[in-house]
Amino acid sequence: MAMGERVLQFLGMPGPWADDNSEPSDHYTIKIGGLPDWPVPQFPSAITHILRCAACQSLCPDFCWRAIRVQKLSSACEEVGRGAASPVSALKDDRCDDLWTFGSGEEGDDGSGEDIDLEELGRALSVAASLASHSKKQMNNQDTKTTEKHLPLSLGTRVVAIDAPVLPCFYTYTQEEPSTREVTVVSSNYSQDSEQEETWEKESYEYDRTWNADRTYLKFKKSMDAFPEQCFRYAYGGKPLLATAKVENPGTCKLCGGPRHYEMQLMPPLLYFLQEGANDCKKHLLDHWNWMTLVVYTCSKSCSHFDDKGKFNIEGWVVAEEAVVIQFEESLQESVHKDYFS
Amino acid sequence: MAERGGGGERGGFGRGFGRGGRGDRGRGGRRRSAGRREEEEKWVPVTKLGRLVKDGKIRTVEEIYLHSLPIKEHQIIDTLVGPSLKDEVMKIMPVQKQTRAGQRTRFKAFVVVGDGNGHVGLGVKCSKEVATAIRGAIILAKLSVIPVRRGYWGNKIGKPHTVPCKVTGKCGSVTVRMVPAPRGAGIVAARVPKKVLQFAGIEDVFTSSRGSTKTLGNFVKATFDCLLKTYAYLTPDFWRETRYTKSPFQEHTDLLAKPTKAIYQDDVERVEA
């Protein structure tokens, strides 16, 4: 990112609901929920490969969110496609019924009966997949041409188990966030006190705070109030809108070891819309999602390191896992501002 | 909550409440300026509590206070306390900063909100424009709404009208002490804390203050801290063991979900006094 360049901030606003939650779409479409659209049909087995824990070779049993970046490699030109967060959750035993099959042949190497609740994978994957189209507009630093490459929508090869639960799906559209400008005209109508019998000491500037909320959260809420329906925010290399001041270190890129920077974050209205759209049987899935924001950090160099072992790439697409930082609501003890009454 | 005898109506708000006059300092007030978009008026909840309130699963603010849940959205208060909530600007003070180009003046607005019946909030906001400061302070005040406990001075007849016991609040160097008063005493306090106490719904109280009460910010926050303490003080009516109920989060999860942890529903032995 060159110095002095303004980072464009995009907001993802909700659009229409999908007619059918499982309907496929182009892998560059931004959507929330539903099933993921892969550029290449062999992806899902590769994805599960990546998501395995390196130590014990099993999928992480905890409820966790993962971000996957999918990027096209090509000798002629480079197209950037990114994947975003998805929870690989529900690897608890009681979810055995959620199977996502792609045809019996490919399941063999995963081990039989691998129960992966990948339905939510569709979610952010789709959310992010679209960012590819954004990246094209913003990659002014890329010295490559971005040419349209339409991969055939192989609808026929996607076989989904009929009873696999799928989250409600809706599409989004993006708009640029206008920078708020306050009119700097001093109010000329300010009148002096009519009563002069009280003389107060001079007051000094005070940052926003209440006894139960701090400045970071109040700024977060202010941005939310300005655009109450924003489902995600995108600003490659920009600054995230944090809900709590403390943020974990995202670590370094798994492919190239370079630093990670902020790319996008998911916002709470997304949860609200999904809950509104979900019928009763899926509501219990959504009940456990209680984050304030999910921040996705990706490789700042947008690397596409070709791994000889072929572990990280399939058919000219590089797949990498990126970092997701979750911020939760604070409890009352945590949010009480000890300095308020001092 | 203090008991309520069957008693005559108190007239509630009657005492010189309301806006306008000395309250409405500066211009701008609360009318919606043309610049605000329609979209801003819609509320999409950000917190789980907000989602429950929007759904209508929580009816009163008391359910939230009972489980010590932080209220992080002012729209929650709007929905639950809503139309009975009144707001008033206590003071607008200019705050100046010396810059190379001269002085930069911003305005600091002090706003108190309350329904005159046990809920009060205080908001302080600095901004370049008076109207923005007032609007921001109202939102901050709604976020900080607290319950106020009222009690009796002597005989428990009629509705509670004064603080339940002597309480004191402190902010900076200012301490404010509130002492129960008999009916008819009225609020014996300086103009600024009197406003806060009126909005809280306290009808009679003796106050005494100490420290640099010329600092408006500290004075008004000390009064607020004092009101916060009314429910923090353990009196003998609270000696009975608490009967725990399900928090709204546990109560309103989907019935189809398998319970993952034990839900508190203690059968408490009642100790007869």
TrEMBL record, chain A:
Transmembrane segments: none annotated. InterPro entries: PDCD2_C. Residues 214-327 form the Programmed cell death protein 2 C-terminal domain. One of its GO terms (cellular component) is cytoplasm. Pfam families: PDCD2_C. PANTHER family: OS04G0640800 PROTEIN, OSJNBB0079B02.4 PROTEIN. This is Programmed cell death protein 2-like. It comes from Vitis vinifera (Grape). The gene is PDCD2L_0.
UniProtKB/TrEMBL annotation, chain B:
The keyword Ribonucleoprotein applies. The keyword Ribonucleoprotein applies. Keywords: Ribonucleoprotein, Ribosomal protein. Pfam families: Ribosomal_S5, Ribosomal_S5_C. SUPFAM superfamilies: dsRNA-binding domain-like, Ribosomal protein S5 domain 2-like. Residues 85-148 form the S5 DRBM domain. One of its GO terms (cellular component) is cytosolic small ribosomal subunit. Residues 8-20 have a biased composition (Gly residues). GO terms for biological process: translation. GO terms for molecular function: mRNA binding; structural constituent of ribosome. InterPro entries: Ribosomal_Su5_D2-typ_SF (IPR020568), Ribosomal_uS5 (IPR000851), Ribosomal_uS5_C (IPR005324), Ribosomal_uS5_euk/arc (IPR005711), Ribosomal_uS5_N (IPR013810), Ribosomal_uS5_N_CS (IPR018192), Ribsml_uS5_D2-typ_fold_subgr (IPR014721). Residues 1-40 are annotated as: Disordered. Belongs to the universal ribosomal protein uS5 family. This is Small ribosomal subunit protein uS5. The lineage of its organism: Eukaryota, Viridiplantae, Streptophyta, Embryophyta, Tracheophyta. The gene is RPS2D_0.
